[in-house]
Each structure stands twice: as C-alpha cells, then as structure tokens.
Amino acid sequence: MKKINLAATLLLFVGSVSYAQSPKKPMAQLINDEFKFAASQYQVLAKNIPAGKTPQSFDKGKSINYDIKWWCSGFYSGSLWYIYEQTKNEQVKNEAEAALKVLEPNQTFTGNHDLGFMMYCSFGNGYRITKNPAYKEIIQRSAQSLSTRFRPKIQVIQSWDKNKYWECPVIIDNMMNLEMLNWASDNGGNPKYKEIAITHANTTIKNHFRPDFSSYHVVDYNPQTGDVLKKATWQGAANCSAWSRGQGWALYGYTMMYRFTKDQNYLKQAKGIANYILNHPNLPADKIPYWDFDAPLIPYAKRDASAGAIIASALLELGQYTDGKEKADFKSAAETMIYSLASDTYRAKAGENGGFLLMHSTGAFPLNSEIDVPLVYADYYYLEALARYKKWYL
C-alpha cells in the first residue's frame, strides 16, 4: 500500500495559496496607489449592482448582491466615501450619494442590531466629509431605531431575535454598532444613546471574555433574569475557540469606546485583546489570520482578509492612545497587515474579482458560506486602515 503524504493531501483538499509578500514600496506611495486603484476598481463593481441592492461578494464568476436590510449594506457607500476623500473623484462621489439614497429606508429599521454597520459606516462617513445636515438627521433617527433593541433587564442590546437556537443572543460584533450611538449623543442627540453604549460595553466585558482576553462569539441571556444561559459560537470553529473576525470586532469596539469615553477600563481591554491577537502562536508571519485562531487544518486553513483589515485599522487607532514600545508594536503589526493585504497574494488585479479590492476572506466557514471570497467589509476596513495610516503616521 502506498504511503500517504498527509500534508500534501490536506493542501490539495483545502486549496493552495501562496502567502509570500511582494517587495515593499514606501507606505505613502502604497496608500496613494491603492486609493487610485480603488477608484478604478469600484467603477467595475458599480456596474455589477442591480438597482436597489448593495454588493456583498463575488463567487464562481457571479456578483452577489443583497437587499438593503442585510447587515453589510452600508459598507459599499462607506468605501466610496473613503475613496472620494482621498482622490476627489467626482464620479465616485456621485456613486456614493446614490448608494446612500438606496439606504435611507433603513433609518427606521429595528429588525436587528446592525444599524451601526448599515447607517454609520455609510451616512457617518458621508456626513463627516460633506457636512450635509440631512445625513446627520438620518444618523440620529437610525440611533433611535437601534436603541429600541436595548434590554434593560439584561443591560445589553439584543443582537438577533429569539429563535430555535437562542433566547436573547448577543454577539461580539455588536460592539461595532455602539459607535453610532456614541456619536449621536455627542452630536446633539439623546444622551441615553451613549448611556446604552456604555452599559452594553460593560456587560460585554463581564460576560464575553475569557481570562486571556479572547472573546466568545455569542452569549445567550435569559431575557427575564439577565442570567447567562450559554456561551457559544455561530461562525467560529467551536464554542471554546477564538473566531478571528470576532477578535477583530472586540479590539476595534473597545478601542472606539475608549475614544468616546476615555474610560481606562476600555483601553486596558483593547490592549489585552491586541496582545492576545499579536502574540498568538497561530498568527501567521504575514499577520493575516486564519478564519479562526483555533481552526482545524492549520496551517492549511483558510485565511480571513477581512479580519486582517479590521485588526489593522483598530491597531492604528489603538496606537494613538499608547506610546513607546506599545505604540511601535501596534503600528508595526498594522504595517505588516497592510503590506500583506496590498500584495498580489490578497489584492485583486485590475478588472478582476468582480470589482472588489481584496481576495481570501471567510464569512462563515461552519455554515459553508462565503469561503475564500471577496467581502465588501474587507474592502471597507482596508480602505479605512489606509486612510488612518496616512492621517496619523505620515
């Protein structure tokens, strides 16, 4: 009987990807080049979007677009605003404004917790750049809609509605939606929005994290008593594993909460999460994580470029609140991630990839959904990381 080379067999099974990095160009030049590329590439993407839909991915030669109530609906317009801000391309601005118009009905949507992703990444960037008062009003109405999902008995914002799997589920992703609540209160809105954000963040610190600062994906609560029913996962490798994008959401979320509150507990939490990620033995040399830090088949497991982009962007902000070796380490790690994502390994060639910028993201591996494909939010946080680096480090 022939001997089987297990490593080779696994490589064939999961698909081979080379993760070698290309020679580095100066960061200022890279950032400029990437935004020019994005302006051109998103013209390709724009042609693949049916009226009233928002782009999500591209797989097997087909563009994938979803209804505006999908949680990712705000990332396309948000990316366009980042591209316009850097390039001043009027065609990009026109497309960004048109994309916002499509999203306007979401301002009164209360069906899930993702109004921050949907309406702040989009209208928030639009207002930041244009100061259009209509955009600010939409953000405020969106914050009011999101606040309806706060559950006082549990001291959290409920993520998903009750279903056969969960009573009152709260996912770590929800930390990202607190940015809109903070901003709304700080910019003339009801002070209760920020109070809700702080309360949710505090409950999440208490219940979502392990002693090593890794996060569970889902915590399910008893809606009457507030007791924790279970700690589990939906998109991670196991209930006890560290789903990579979830660690990114946690890092970004607590860094952002420190920005709005200057609460040292949030800064401590963000640093702890950052050190967990950066010191993890399963973090590859190019610092783009596998889809889960405990994924089966490492080192042949699929990567998640979206997790890399989110973590890079968060580290760049966290570096603003630290100094000395800590600041240098966070900046250096983010640089490595950006150079990796900009390389031929992860960044698409012009006109390819359905118009998306990045390849090799993983949406929900256990659900066999969006595996090794471009994802709209990977592009968004990649562009944000580039813009942040330019603003804070050049």
UniProtKB/TrEMBL annotation:
A single BP term in Gene Ontology: polysaccharide catabolic process
PANTHER family to which the protein is assigned, alphabetical: HYDROLASE, PUTATIVE (AFU_ORTHOLOGUE AFUA_7G05090)-RELATED (PTHR36845)
First and last residue of the signal peptide: 1-20
Name of the protein this chain belongs to: Glucuronyl hydrolase
Superkingdom of source: Bacteria
Residues that coordinate or bind substrate: 114, 173, 233, 245, 249
Family, per entry: Belongs to the glycosyl hydrolase 88 family.
